[in-house]
Write a structure and sequence with these properties.
single chain; seven-stranded mixed β-sheet; 7 strands; about 20% strand; elongated
Protein backbone atom coordinates (compact mmCIF):
# COMPACT_ATOMS: atom_id res chain seq x y z
CA UNK A 1 0.00 0.00 0.00
CA UNK A 2 1.15 3.54 -0.66
CA UNK A 3 2.46 5.70 2.17
CA UNK A 4 -0.35 8.23 2.31
CA UNK A 5 1.59 10.54 4.61
CA UNK A 6 4.07 10.91 1.73
CA UNK A 7 1.34 11.07 -0.90
CA UNK A 8 -0.72 13.77 0.82
CA UNK A 9 0.95 16.81 -0.80
CA UNK A 10 0.39 15.60 -4.36
CA UNK A 11 -2.68 13.45 -3.81
CA UNK A 12 -5.39 15.74 -5.15
CA UNK A 13 -3.43 16.97 -8.16
CA UNK A 14 -2.45 13.44 -9.18
CA UNK A 15 -5.99 12.06 -8.96
CA UNK A 16 -8.25 14.43 -10.79
CA UNK A 17 -8.45 17.16 -8.16
CA UNK A 18 -11.66 19.04 -7.47
CA UNK A 19 -13.58 17.90 -10.58
CA UNK A 20 -13.18 14.26 -9.57
CA UNK A 21 -14.20 15.03 -5.99
CA UNK A 22 -17.28 16.88 -7.22
CA UNK A 23 -18.38 13.93 -9.37
CA UNK A 24 -17.86 11.50 -6.50
CA UNK A 25 -19.74 13.61 -3.96
CA UNK A 26 -22.68 14.14 -6.29
CA UNK A 27 -23.02 10.40 -6.86
CA UNK A 28 -22.73 9.60 -3.14
CA UNK A 29 -25.34 12.20 -2.24
CA UNK A 30 -27.76 10.67 -4.70
CA UNK A 31 -27.76 7.50 -2.58
CA UNK A 32 -28.22 9.15 0.83
CA UNK A 33 -31.63 10.39 2.04
CA UNK A 34 -31.78 14.16 2.53
CA UNK A 35 -32.70 14.38 6.20
CA UNK A 36 -31.08 15.47 9.47
CA UNK A 37 -28.62 13.15 11.17
CA UNK A 38 -24.95 12.22 11.30
CA UNK A 39 -22.66 11.03 8.50
CA UNK A 40 -19.25 9.40 8.81
CA UNK A 41 -16.86 9.51 5.84
CA UNK A 42 -14.27 6.77 6.46
CA UNK A 43 -10.81 7.03 4.88
CA UNK A 44 -11.70 10.61 3.99
CA UNK A 45 -8.22 11.42 2.67
CA UNK A 46 -7.71 15.11 2.04
CA UNK A 47 -11.39 15.81 2.67
CA UNK A 48 -12.20 16.99 -0.84
CA UNK A 49 -15.29 14.76 -1.00
CA UNK A 50 -16.10 15.11 2.72
CA UNK A 51 -16.29 18.89 2.46
CA UNK A 52 -18.77 18.64 -0.38
CA UNK A 53 -20.96 16.20 1.53
CA UNK A 54 -21.13 18.64 4.43
CA UNK A 55 -21.79 21.66 2.22
CA UNK A 56 -24.56 19.94 0.29
CA UNK A 57 -26.38 18.63 3.36
CA UNK A 58 -26.35 21.27 6.11
CA UNK A 59 -28.78 19.18 8.17
CA UNK A 60 -26.19 16.41 8.39
CA UNK A 61 -23.40 16.58 10.94
CA UNK A 62 -20.47 15.24 8.90
CA UNK A 63 -17.39 13.62 10.41
CA UNK A 64 -14.36 12.51 8.41
CA UNK A 65 -11.86 9.92 9.60
CA UNK A 66 -8.50 8.88 8.15
CA UNK A 67 -5.57 6.89 9.50
CA UNK A 68 -2.93 9.07 7.83
CA UNK A 69 -1.93 12.08 9.90
CA UNK A 70 -0.99 14.08 6.80
CA UNK A 71 -4.25 13.31 5.03
CA UNK A 72 -6.33 14.07 8.12
CA UNK A 73 -4.44 17.34 8.54
CA UNK A 74 -5.38 18.48 5.07
CA UNK A 75 -8.96 17.37 5.55
CA UNK A 76 -9.15 19.38 8.78
CA UNK A 77 -8.42 22.56 6.84
CA UNK A 78 -11.40 21.80 4.61
CA UNK A 79 -13.76 20.78 7.39
CA UNK A 80 -12.56 22.38 10.64
CA UNK A 81 -13.67 20.52 13.75
CA UNK A 82 -15.05 17.62 11.74
CA UNK A 83 -11.97 15.41 11.17
CA UNK A 84 -10.21 12.84 13.34
CA UNK A 85 -7.55 10.18 12.92
CA UNK A 86 -9.01 6.68 13.10
CA UNK A 87 -8.45 3.16 11.81
CA UNK A 88 -11.48 2.11 9.78
CA UNK A 89 -11.02 -1.46 11.00
CA UNK A 90 -11.59 -0.30 14.60
CA UNK A 91 -13.73 2.81 14.54
CA UNK A 92 -13.81 4.82 17.80
CA UNK A 93 -17.60 5.17 17.87
CA UNK A 94 -20.40 3.42 19.70
CA UNK A 95 -22.82 1.13 17.92
CA UNK A 96 -25.58 2.82 15.93
CA UNK A 97 -24.01 6.30 15.98
CA UNK A 98 -24.48 7.37 12.35
CA UNK A 99 -27.34 7.71 9.89
CA UNK A 100 -24.99 7.31 6.95
CA UNK A 101 -21.47 5.94 6.46
CA UNK A 102 -19.51 6.51 3.26
CA UNK A 103 -16.23 5.07 2.04
CA UNK A 104 -14.94 6.22 -1.34
CA UNK A 105 -11.85 4.54 -2.84
CA UNK A 106 -11.08 2.49 0.26
CA UNK A 107 -11.85 -1.22 0.04
CA UNK A 108 -9.56 -1.88 -2.93
CA UNK A 109 -6.58 -0.75 -0.83
CA UNK A 110 -7.01 -3.39 1.87
CA UNK A 111 -4.75 -6.41 2.12
CA UNK A 112 -7.30 -9.18 1.69
CA UNK A 113 -10.84 -10.43 2.23
CA UNK A 114 -10.49 -10.51 6.02
CA UNK A 115 -9.67 -6.80 6.14
CA UNK A 116 -12.48 -5.91 3.75
CA UNK A 117 -14.95 -7.88 5.88
CA UNK A 118 -13.64 -6.13 9.00
CA UNK A 119 -14.15 -2.68 7.50
CA UNK A 120 -17.63 -3.46 6.20
CA UNK A 121 -18.50 -4.91 9.61
CA UNK A 122 -17.32 -1.75 11.38
CA UNK A 123 -19.24 0.51 9.02
CA UNK A 124 -22.34 -1.62 9.64
CA UNK A 125 -21.79 -1.61 13.41
CA UNK A 126 -21.84 2.17 13.71
CA UNK A 127 -24.88 2.49 11.43
CA UNK A 128 -28.30 3.18 12.94
CA UNK A 129 -31.42 1.24 11.92
CA UNK A 130 -32.63 2.75 8.68
CA UNK A 131 -29.14 4.11 7.95
CA UNK A 132 -27.26 3.86 4.65
CA UNK A 133 -23.73 2.60 3.93
CA UNK A 134 -22.22 3.71 0.59
CA UNK A 135 -18.94 2.39 -0.81
CA UNK A 136 -17.05 2.19 -4.08
CA UNK A 137 -16.61 -1.30 -5.59
CA UNK A 138 -14.55 -2.79 -8.43
CA UNK A 139 -12.15 0.14 -8.31
CA UNK A 140 -9.17 -1.40 -10.10
CA UNK A 141 -11.33 -2.84 -12.86
CA UNK A 142 -12.73 0.61 -13.60
CA UNK A 143 -9.32 1.69 -14.89
CA UNK A 144 -9.37 -0.90 -17.67
CA UNK A 145 -11.24 1.16 -20.27
CA UNK A 146 -10.38 -0.95 -23.30
CA UNK A 147 -7.59 1.34 -24.51
CA UNK A 148 -4.33 0.46 -26.24
CA UNK A 149 -2.63 0.98 -22.87
CA UNK A 150 -4.83 -1.69 -21.31
CA UNK A 151 -4.00 -4.07 -24.16
CA UNK A 152 -0.28 -3.70 -23.38
CA UNK A 153 -0.83 -4.21 -19.66
CA UNK A 154 -3.07 -7.32 -19.86
CA UNK A 155 -0.25 -9.79 -18.99
CA UNK A 156 1.00 -7.86 -15.96
CA UNK A 157 0.74 -9.66 -12.61
CA UNK A 158 -1.75 -8.10 -10.23
CA UNK A 159 -3.44 -9.19 -7.07
CA UNK A 160 -7.06 -10.34 -7.11
CA UNK A 161 -9.59 -7.56 -6.56
CA UNK A 162 -10.74 -7.36 -2.94
CA UNK A 163 -13.69 -5.07 -3.59
CA UNK A 164 -15.82 -6.82 -6.19
CA UNK A 165 -19.49 -5.86 -6.01
CA UNK A 166 -20.51 -9.47 -5.32
CA UNK A 167 -18.00 -9.87 -2.48
CA UNK A 168 -18.91 -6.56 -0.83
CA UNK A 169 -22.62 -7.34 -1.13
CA UNK A 170 -21.98 -10.65 0.61
CA UNK A 171 -20.02 -9.01 3.43
CA UNK A 172 -22.78 -6.43 3.87
CA UNK A 173 -25.45 -9.14 3.97
CA UNK A 174 -23.51 -10.96 6.69
CA UNK A 175 -23.83 -7.79 8.80
CA UNK A 176 -27.58 -7.53 8.23
CA UNK A 177 -27.45 -4.87 5.50
CA UNK A 178 -29.59 -5.04 2.37
CA UNK A 179 -28.93 -3.51 -1.08
CA UNK A 180 -30.31 0.03 -1.36
CA UNK A 181 -29.09 1.39 -4.69
CA UNK A 182 -26.16 1.91 -6.98
CA UNK A 183 -24.59 4.70 -8.99
CA UNK A 184 -21.68 5.39 -11.34
CA UNK A 185 -19.53 8.48 -11.72
CA UNK A 186 -16.58 9.47 -13.92
CA UNK A 187 -13.05 9.55 -12.56
CA UNK A 188 -12.54 13.00 -14.02
CA UNK A 189 -8.94 13.60 -15.03
CA UNK A 190 -7.78 10.05 -14.35
CA UNK A 191 -7.54 8.76 -17.89
CA UNK A 192 -4.08 7.35 -18.47
CA UNK A 193 -1.58 8.41 -21.10
CA UNK A 194 1.26 6.10 -22.14
CA UNK A 195 3.85 8.41 -20.60
CA UNK A 196 2.01 8.75 -17.27
CA UNK A 197 1.46 4.99 -17.16
CA UNK A 198 5.18 4.36 -17.52
CA UNK A 199 5.83 6.69 -14.60
CA UNK A 200 3.20 4.89 -12.52
CA UNK A 201 4.65 1.48 -13.36
CA UNK A 202 8.06 2.63 -12.19
CA UNK A 203 6.47 3.62 -8.88
CA UNK A 204 4.97 0.15 -8.52
CA UNK A 205 1.34 1.19 -9.06
CA UNK A 206 -1.48 -1.16 -10.21
CA UNK A 207 0.78 -4.20 -10.51
CA UNK A 208 2.62 -6.73 -8.37
CA UNK A 209 5.83 -5.95 -10.24
CA UNK A 210 8.43 -4.08 -8.23
CA UNK A 211 10.08 -1.07 -9.87
CA UNK A 212 13.38 -2.99 -10.16
CA UNK A 213 11.81 -6.05 -11.79
CA UNK A 214 13.12 -6.37 -15.40
CA UNK A 215 9.55 -6.96 -16.59
CA UNK A 216 8.66 -3.43 -15.46
CA UNK A 217 11.00 -2.01 -18.10
CA UNK A 218 9.69 -4.46 -20.69
CA UNK A 219 6.18 -3.09 -20.18
CA UNK A 220 7.57 0.45 -20.14
CA UNK A 221 9.25 -0.09 -23.50
CA UNK A 222 6.02 -1.39 -25.05
CA UNK A 223 4.09 1.58 -23.69
CA UNK A 224 6.73 3.97 -25.04
CA UNK A 225 6.03 2.68 -28.54
CA UNK A 226 2.34 3.62 -28.43
CA UNK A 227 1.19 6.71 -30.36
CA UNK A 228 0.18 9.98 -28.74
CA UNK A 229 2.33 9.59 -25.67
CA UNK A 230 0.73 12.46 -23.76
CA UNK A 231 -2.89 11.98 -24.86
CA UNK A 232 -4.99 10.69 -22.00
CA UNK A 233 -7.24 7.80 -22.83
CA UNK A 234 -10.87 7.78 -21.56
CA UNK A 235 -11.51 8.42 -17.88
CA UNK A 236 -12.50 5.44 -15.75
CA UNK A 237 -16.08 5.14 -14.52
CA UNK A 238 -16.31 4.21 -10.84
CA UNK A 239 -19.16 2.27 -9.24
CA UNK A 240 -20.94 2.82 -5.93
CA UNK A 241 -23.14 0.42 -3.99
CA UNK A 242 -25.49 1.44 -1.18
CA UNK A 243 -26.73 -0.81 1.63
CA UNK A 244 -29.35 -0.13 4.29
CA UNK A 245 -29.66 -1.39 7.82
CA UNK A 246 -33.36 -2.29 8.06
CA UNK A 247 -35.31 -0.28 10.59
CA UNK A 248 -36.26 -2.09 13.77
CA UNK A 249 -39.76 -3.60 13.73
Amino acid sequence: MLDYDEEADAYDASRGGEPRAEAAAEAVLGLIPDRPGRLLDVACGTGSVTRRLAAARPALRVTGADLSAAMAGRAAHRLPGGILRADCRRLPFADATFDAVTGVWLLHLLSGPAEVRAVVAECARVLRPGGIYVTTVDKAGAHDVGSDIDAVLVPRPRRPAQDTADAVTGYAAAEGLVPAGRADFPGVGQGRSPRSTVADLRRGWFTLLTPDDPRTEEFAARLARLPDQDRRRPDPVFSLRAFRRPAAT
